[in-house]
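dude i think i finally got it to work??
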Amino acid sequence: MHPTRKELEEFVHFKHAPLEKGGWAPRLRLRFGYYTPDDVYEAVVCGLVNRNSAWLDVGGGRDLFPSNLRAGRMLSNRCELLVGVDPSDNIQENTFVHRRVQANIEEFRSEVRFDLATLRMVAEHITDPESAVLSLSRLLKPGGKLVIYTVNRWAPITLVSWLVPFRLHHGIKKLIWDTEEKDTFPVAYKMNSRRQLRRLLEKAGFREYSFAYLDDCRTFGKWRLANTLELCFWKALHAFGLHYPETCLLGIYERVQESIYSR
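look at this
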């Protein structure tokens, strides 16, 4: 289910085509043989969406893939139905989804059962995970896939954000990633470890289809020298068989049975 290195390389060439005009960062990452967590998540979703897909995107705000508008538009045109559900006003700016619903996932009702549901950098904000996963179980067909892409609870940046007061989060995010204030939300970190996700989702009638820890070398992605050093550190750790400390989680779950919550 997860793409091969060859598939990722082809996907990144598509994402940044023409590569020679895509800026220094994609070329630097390719030179190191490194693919961002966004690259992997986007490639996974591209592999799951087909012409018959009914797709539910949860908490996506204005975009499907903020770093890959081309793939977002391609998938929007490819699938049969794409519904975006998000309580934030940002959903009203989303031009990719076929239907916008400004609501929490627990409030959303649909006669359609979905083949695919995606949560991109959403799980860390969910305060009532049991209700959220129960709603997803209700909305997905048996055999439907749920893709959760989120931060790792035990990664250094996540630990820092947990300790830093929320009022300071936007300033830090803007400095590092140039984000807008309306894209910064409070965090809960109740669905941000493999164990937490597996426990919650098995109770809701899902099985873990595949799971990966994705090395995240984007902390200094704005600055060429700093990012080069970051990638050198990543490569050196891998040469010694060591894990990179900053990671994201990418889990794919299959809806297989009735939730125990509804019994």
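The chain has one domain: 5-152+189-258.
im so relieved honestly
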